């Protein structure tokens, strides 16, 4: 287990079950959680992306099905078409 204390981690990729975070800030990071034990104290997230896997993902889906969790649609990426003809 990796221990981070009094750190500011930017653009990190962390699996919560594999690290201990104490008095830390995660900025613009990807955070993965699978439903296991997580060890953190005074942890702050800024512009982070959460990825739920395994049992954690199933729990999130169940909460959404019961209406207890509002799932936001994924952003749609598109490219605007341009008209090459001049009128």
Alpha-beta classification = mainly beta
The count of helical stretches stands at 1
Distance between the termini: 65 Å
Number of domains: 1
Given as residue ranges, the uncertain stretches (5+ residues, pLDDT < 50) are 80-84
Helix content: 10-25%
Structure description:
The chain is built from one helix and seven strands. The chain has one domain. Strands 1, 2, 4 and 6 form a four-stranded parallel beta sheet that branches. It is mainly beta.
Quick overview of this protein structure:
With 87 residues, the protein is mostly beta strands.
Give the helix/strand layout.
Elements: E1 2-5, E2 8-10, E3 13-15, E4 19-27, E5 30-33, E6 39-46, E7 49-52, H1 54-65
Parallel strand pairs: 1-4, 2-4, 3-5, 4-6, 5-7
Which tags fit this structure?
87 residues, mainly beta, four-stranded parallel sheet, three-stranded parallel sheet, 1 helix, globular
């Amino acid at each position: 287990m990796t221990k981070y204390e009094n750190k500011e981690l930017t653009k990190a990729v962390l699996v919560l079950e594999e690290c201990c975070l104490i008095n830390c800030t995660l900025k613009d990071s990807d955070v993965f959680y699978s439903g296991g034990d997580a060890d953190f104290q005074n942890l702050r997230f800024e512009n982070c992306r959460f990825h739920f896997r395994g049992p954690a993902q199933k729990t999130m889906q169940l909460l959404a099905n019961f209406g207890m969790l509002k799932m936001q649609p994924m952003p749609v990426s598109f490219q605007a078409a341009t008209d090459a003809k001049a009128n």
